[in-house]
Amino acid sequence: MNKKLLLSLLSFFFLLKVSAQNKIEGFQTPSDQFGHELYVSFFTTIEFNDSDYLGTLLTEIPEMNAINNEFHLQFEKGIAISDEKLDFLESEAIRISKSGASVRKLRNILKVKIDNPTKERLQTIQSELEKLAQVEYCSLMSLQPVTPPGDIFPTTTNYESNQTYLNANPGVNMTYAWGLGLIGNGIKIRDVEYGFNKNHEELVDVNASLATGMTISSSATTAYTEHGTAVLGIVMADKGAYGISGMAYGAQEIIQFPEWQQSGYNRVFAVSQAVANSIAGDVIIYEMQTGGQASNYVPAEFNQAVWDLTKAATDAGVIIVAAAGNGNENLDGGYYAAYRNRGDSGAIIVGAGTPDINHNKISYSTYGARVDVQGWGNSVRATGYGDFSQFGGDFNQSYTDFSGTSSATPIVASCAIVLQSYWHSLTGSYMTSVQMRDLLKLTGIAQGTGGNIGKLPNMQAAIGQINTLSVQENSGQVLFTIFPNPAKDKITINLQQDNSVNAKVEIMNTIGQKVYSSSISLGNNDISIAGLSSGLYVVKITDGEKSSVKKIIKQ
Q1: Over the stretch 374-414, which tens digit does the pLDDT of each residue have?
Q2: Are 508 and 515 in contact (CB under 8 A)?
Q3: Where are any strands of DSSP class E within 92-237?
Q4: How many Å separate Cα 10 from the centre of its chain?
Q5: What angle do CA 345, 350, 354 make, to 5 degrees?
Q6: Is residue 255 scored above 90 in pLDDT?
């Protein structure tokens, strides 16, 4: 046979095989002890105009009748997001990403309901549905809670006396951002996992809460719930005179959406609610992993339904930061070809690296080209657990040295939160998930050895790059930041270096009366507001033909 013809035929059959594999998820489900749910995604050529999903399918797909006769199928909406919210997300996706296809897709993901839904019966239905040309994929989700992606045993004994990940290399240099007053102001955060201790001394006075209407399962042990306490502490712990300080302690709020509720375990529902309660500019943290090859842990988006939700959210302007998982899996391997062939979900996938200047891959971190950046995989001082210290025997004064992709992910997420806040303060707009990912990858500190887990964020370099980018986006405006805000006695105005030395600052009250006026120089400028009444004020900086305004609150 002609060699070129043979190669063409082999390529053709290979593509057929890959195409067929794309329908079937490689995810290995546990036993049926906890039960399963089957999600099915129909191509958008099928239009569901009402809740009679089965009636539409029987009309549009004749082959569905035989499956229904055997199993007496019922279908319900698979993604628990209202039509109104989906309409909004689609309009945002069109505005931001120029296409609403990823959001429209969510309308066609249904959940299969049958009597006696054993794993074997659902797998048989899955096999039959995947033969239909109108079905994009089926996803069999176990209702057994998946272990959070951390702590790695044995617990590290390399305890540090402070949060050294806040400092310059080998840390991310968050202290540099704090020195500029950049603490995450105005950004809303959503965390998807199992629970947290709101009564912890570091979280009781910050705007951290459980999502309205959601519960934490009473079956979830502290090994699960304290995972969230550690994560929320890294991100938003109170910056006081004791304990730790959250890396983005000035963020507006952090809300947790638990996978494991009193009603049962449902990851898709938790993610869908986090997405439904987010808008462009918000940051969602996936402190989740799922089973890949040989049930080794990989990113949660390996599950197709989670991937679809992720893609819809990032297209609509939401930043998603997700753990790579603790499975030491190579996502560039053949087993994950179908996963890679889906394309880019837009999420920022985080691997775990060593807490030293080498930034090598830690042995257990999943890796590959799809892993974008790394955070510290151990020696991360955090709230919760109490295995490092517990003051006065009080569970609410517990601290741990956190590890795994669990600790790496909130470190990276905190960087994204602070950088998003800074970008918005300069431009009035928000970075997309892909733009934030590109920024972190461009400006990060290079990885050492091991499979690819990407660079470690470098806040000083990232802020410098934002200054350059914002000048291009804001030609004709003066670039400056104000901190703290709200403020009591003093504000500091940081004037960016691309402005001249002839700038002037004015402060006006809400009726336009000027209450302060002075020249202003490059860098940090301290201004006393102790004599002003409490309320809202407008700060205006003028430099020649350019001017910009920001609002402050005097407490």
Answers
A1: 999 999 999 999 998 888 888 998 999 999 999 999 999 99
A2: yes
A3: 109-113, 135-142, 188-193, 208-210
A4: 40
A5: 165
A6: yes
How far is C-alpha 143 from the geometric centre of its chain's CA atoms? 22
DSSP string, 437-489: HHHHHHHSBPP-SSS---BBP-HHHHHHHHHHHHHHHTTTS--EEEESSSBSS
Kindly state whether residues 346 and 398 are assigned to the same domain. Answer: yes
What is the rounded distance in angstroms from the CA atom of residue 549 to the CA atom of residue 185?
A: 17
Pick from 445, 470, 495: which residue ends a domain?
A: 470
| pLDDT tens per residue across span 43-60 | 999 999 888 999 999 999
Alpha-carbon distance values, 283 to 226, 274, 416, 421, 432 (Å): 21, 10, 8, 11, 10
Assess whether 67 and 188 both reside in one domain.
Answer: no
Instruction: With respect to residue 96, please indicate whether it lies within any of the assigned structural domains.
Output: yes
Rounded to two decimals, the pTM is 0.81
What span, in angstroms and rounded, lies between the C-alpha atoms of 198 and 210?
9
Beta bridge partners of 99: none
SS3 of 253, please?
strand
361, 510: one domain? no
> Quick one: which of 9, 145, 128 has its CA closest to 67?
128
Whether residues 423 and 338 fall in one domain: yes
**For residue 278, which phi and psi values (nearest 5 degrees)?**
-125, 155
Look at 96-110, 237-251, 364-378 and tell me which has the smallest mean pLDDT. Answer: 237-251
Question: Hey, what amino acid is at 543?
Answer: D
- Cα distance between residue 336 and residue 340, in whole Å: 6
Alpha-carbon distance values, 453 to 95, 308, 359, 375, 456 (Å): 32, 23, 9, 9, 9
Q: Are 516 and 550 in contact (CB under 8 A)?
A: no
Q: Are residues 430 and 531 in the same domain?
A: no
Identify the domain containing residue 225 by its residue range: 164-470
CATH number, position 520: 2.60.40.3080
**Residue 149 domain-assigned (yes or no):** no
